[in-house]
Specification:
Aspartate Aminotransferase, domain 1, about 375 residues, seven-stranded mixed beta sheet, alpha/beta, binds pyridoxal-5'-phosphate, single chain
């Protein structure tokens, strides 16, 4: 099998499991305990936090450990929304369901939720900026790198506009962090969410990046023992935090504006694969062809007559041929629901079930491309015959 589904989850990076085992062996105590076992655990936890803060060039207090991006997103949005008067919350129309679901909950408690429309490539329409950021907008949540179609949003421009208007901005950076760790000091967003398992770390841990200026206004989702500076109660998982720190330490730092840089590394590999695959006229590229996650390829599939082919059927045929990819986004427990993202991009209904996502990681090399293309063609023929 060749694993081409890094956006769903990635295998552990080298050394991550080793560090987690060592942490479990040596620092298994409860970090809140005052005895030596507790002190060792608390030291290991803070070492992990320090390492992540150093990598992100942030203060250590800015890093809040959660169970993953879904929880971080809820903490960010509910946490901010409950500390200000309800007003308008703006989210893009291509958010992960964790964000749109959270926005739906806030709509029930008096928030007016507006969706930022996107064009056919999945890019938010910047011409709507002034209208959407006018009063009573108080909070904006914008996905940085879209998981289903790969489009990178103009986060820096929106963040700048928000800060000029005193609007809080949260970004869902879950798919971006695996491609480059941005500098928190240089990023003008208030809150950032991510999951370790998309970055070659363990599942069950994520982070919410916060800032000193608004941390005290953030209301926790979980109360209890007051861990994570009161923002996330519950005994901390030191082992998972250590695993996340190890994984993130192996990811290159990046200048946020260069995230979609093309032409080298994994994006060159992706471009080569894309060019070989789309020689077959039944495949077309979906999402922004240029400003996109470097490891991400989204394709729409049809037969020779132009009739869309079920992405789910193709995923099963490709699996039988030795390729693990996903249809659209793999984050919705394998449900066959219509894609909200492709609907927002105004794709015709029949085509919305014909998307597949290929996402690469550093376990794929150039020499693997021949066999990937061969297996893909075999899988496609099989899907068309079944
Ligand atoms: C953009 C984006 N946000 C949030 C999530 C949720 O991440 P998790 O399931 O790790 O909480 C995902 C998962 O795929 C994602 O792609």
């Amino acid at each position: 099998m060749i694993y081409l589904d890094a956006c769903a989850t990635a295998p552990l990076r080298p050394g991550v499991l080793h560090r987690m085992i060592a942490t479990q062996d040596q620092a298994w105590g409860n970090p809140s305990s005052l005895h030596g076992f507790g002190l060792k655990a608390s030291e290991a936890l803070e070492r992990a936090r320090f390492q992540i803060a150093e990598q992100l060039r942030s203060d250590v207090q800015d890093v809040v450990f959660t169970s993953g991006a879904t929880e971080s997103i809820h903490l960010a949005l509910h946490g901010m929304a409950s500390s200000v008067e309800p007003g308008r919350l703006v989210i893009s129309s291509v958010e992960h369901p964790a964000v749109s679901g959270c926005a739906n909950q806030l709509a029930k408690s008096g928030w007016d939720v507006s969706e930022w429309p996107v064009d056919q490539l999945g890019r938010i329409r910047l011409e709507c900026l002034d209208e959407l950021l006018s009063p009573p907008t108080r909070i904006v949540s914008l996905v940085w790198g879209q998981g289903e179609v790969g489009t990178i949003q103009p986060l820096l421009a929106v963040a700048e506009a928000c800060s000029q208007r005193g609007i809080l901005i949260h970004t869902d950076a879950t798919q971006v962090l695996s491609q480059g760790v941005p500098s928190w000091v240089q990023l003008s967003v208030d809150l950032l969410s991510a999951s370790a398992h998309k970055c070659g770390g363990p599942r069950g841990i994520g982070l919410l990046m916060t800032r000193d200026r608004n941390r005290s206004a953030l209301n926790p989702l979980l109360s209890g023992g007051g861990q994570e500076a009161g923002l996330r109660s519950g005994t901390e998982s030191v082992v998972l935090a250590a695993g996340m720190a190890e994984a993130l330490s192996q990811i290159e730092c990046c200048v946020p504006a260069d995230l979609a840089r093309s032409g080298h590394g994994i994006s060159a590999l992706r471009d080569d694969l894309r060019d070989r695959l789309i020689k077959d006229e039944r495949l077309t590229v979906c999402g922004d062809p240029e400003v996109r996650l470097p490891h991400h390829l989204s394709l729409l599939v049809s037969d020779h007559d132009g009739t869309p082919v079920s992405g789910r059927r193709l995923v099963r045929s490709l699996d039988a041929c030795g390729l693990a990819v996903s249809s659209g986004s793999a984050c919705s427990s394998g449900k066959d629901s219509d894609s909200a993202v492709l609907t927002a991009m105004a794709l015709p209904k029949a085509m919305r079930r014909s998307s597949i996502r290929i996402s690469l990681g550093d376990w794929i090399e150039h020499k693997d491309l021949d066999v990937i293309v061969e297996r893909f063609q075999a899988g496609l023929e099989q899907a068309l015959c079944s």
